[in-house]
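queue> pop job 88
queue> type: inverse folding (structure -> sequence)
queue> payload:
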């Protein structure tokens, strides 16, 4: 008999609760260590032990990303069967990703213009050495690059758009080979299940990994870094929360009718992972699992929309660029004008398409945006100190945007299981994830039967 999530958790605390405790404990310990300011602690405990555990945890997540995307997307493409549906999912998610990012940055810039952070700021004494700019690739280059000349290199470098392209081509070709692909499809189902199992194993380690990552960041980030740019930080955090809790949730409610509260609850673990790793890419395994098993989006949609979103959809990052541009324009007393603001919106949206979701990439994108509107890129020195914490918050917003769009697209295609969404225990993370899972056995037994879109 299949166990329910509550059977599996028993009377023990849920894993999400433990991860949450790990996060809060990490903040407390980090702030205490930062106040103590001891050489021994910062070298051996923070840089040494916390650094080691944190890096192991992030590496463990990253090692899953490419194989998981490959096999879940292969299963997705072969499971969809209908290539037109695949095209619709691609078109809708692309459109929604671009629109939500444009709305995010437009609202953020309006908020920043109203609040006016940076007015009267004095740049004297700010060390601007070591800040260099980066040229934005053209849209044509970005699109040309989607086709990998060497798929193995694409896998090795984690080039997500190239991987997605290549895997979709293989999936479509496998479908067109019909009966011959039956065992290939079964093998992919098995590999997908296996990867998901490893995600569960990594999750069991998450409370400690999250604790170490967060304790390390907070030990290294003194509060004194925030004081000179408090107006920037306040406006940015306000804009990020506004987008996460109001804009995205209103869009979700209006388009799907689903409860934003349930949605937020089910995304909590993925948001904490994004917050602690500051990487949408490294969070893909957890986002994918939350979106499919907690929210109920079918794998045929999520296996495409989640890795696609981690690469091209960065609402939080765009918000940072909008607020930072207005802030720096105020600091330097430069009036960007409406044309300048529109350029910033267009640049931020375009830049997000071609850049992967990894820590700190938002700052690199900001150099491209500032260059376009003629603001001195040295200004970035001002916000560098607070960027890690801002990166953590905006990454949580980025992956939430990916999940919202995945849910909307799935709902519109009849690929959302509302019974899963409404079940508070569905896909709950338990430490028994590392043990035998009877539900996985059931799923695999099903896939061992003829694949739905392949002839017997
Ligand atoms: N760290 C962000 C992400 O992975 C990107 C950024 O804003 O720097 O989504």
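queue> result:
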């Amino acid at each position: 008999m299949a166990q329910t999530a509550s059977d599996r958790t028993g009377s023990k605390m849920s894993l999400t609760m433990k991860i949450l405790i790990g996060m809060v404990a990490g903040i407390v310990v980090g702030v205490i260590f930062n106040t103590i300011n001891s050489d021994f602690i910062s070298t051996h405990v923070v840089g040494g032990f916390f650094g080691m555990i944190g890096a192991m945890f992030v590496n463990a997540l990253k090692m899953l990303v490419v194989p998981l995307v490959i096999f879940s997307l292969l299963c997705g493409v072969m499971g969809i069967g209908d290539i037109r549906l695949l095209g619709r999912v691609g078109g809708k998610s692309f459109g929604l990703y671009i629109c939500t990012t444009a709305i995010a940055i437009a609202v953020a810039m309006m908020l920043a213009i109203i609040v006016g952070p940076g007015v009267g700021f004095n740049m004297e004494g700010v060390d601007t050495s070591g800040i260099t700019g980066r040229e934005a690739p053209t849209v044509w280059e970005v699109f040309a690059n989607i086709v990998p000349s060497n798929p193995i290199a694409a896998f090795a470098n984690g080039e997500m758009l190239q991987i997605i392209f290549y895997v979709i081509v293989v999936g479509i070709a496998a479908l067109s080979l019909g009966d011959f692909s039956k065992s290939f499809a079964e093998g992919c189902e098995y590999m997908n299940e296996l990867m998901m199992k490893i995600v569960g194993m990594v999750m069991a380690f998450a409370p400690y990994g999250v604790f170490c990552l967060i304790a390390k960041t907070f030990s290294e980030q003194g509060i004194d870094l925030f004081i000179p740019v408090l107006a920037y930080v306040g406006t940015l955090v306000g804009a990020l929360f506004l987008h996460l809790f109001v804009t995205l949730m209103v869009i979700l409610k209006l388009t799907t009718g689903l409860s934003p509260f349930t949605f937020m609850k089910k995304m909590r673990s993925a948001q904490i992972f994004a917050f602690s790793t500051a990487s949408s890419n490294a969070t893909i395994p957890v986002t994918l699992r939350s979106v499919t098993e907690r929210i109920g989006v079918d794998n045929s949609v999520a296996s495409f929309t989640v890795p696609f979103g981690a690469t091209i959809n960065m609402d939080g990052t765009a918000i940072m660029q909008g607020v930072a541009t207005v802030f720096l324009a105020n600091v330097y007393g430069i009036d960007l004008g409406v044309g300048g603001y529109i350029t910033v919106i267009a640049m931020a949206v375009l830049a997000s398409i071609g850049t992967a979701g990894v820590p700190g990439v938002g700052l690199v994108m900001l150099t491209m945006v500032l260059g376009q509107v003629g603001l001195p890129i040295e200004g970035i020195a001002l916000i560098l100190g607070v960027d890690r914490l801002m990166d953590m918050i905006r990454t949580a917003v980025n992956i939430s945007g990916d999940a919202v769009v995945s849910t909307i697209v799935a709902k519109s295609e009849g690929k959302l299981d509302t019974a899963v969404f409404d079940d508070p225990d569905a896909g709950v993370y338990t430490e028994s994830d590392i043990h035998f899972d009877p539900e996985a056995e059931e799923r695999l037994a099903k896939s061992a039967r003829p694949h739905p879109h392949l002839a017997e």
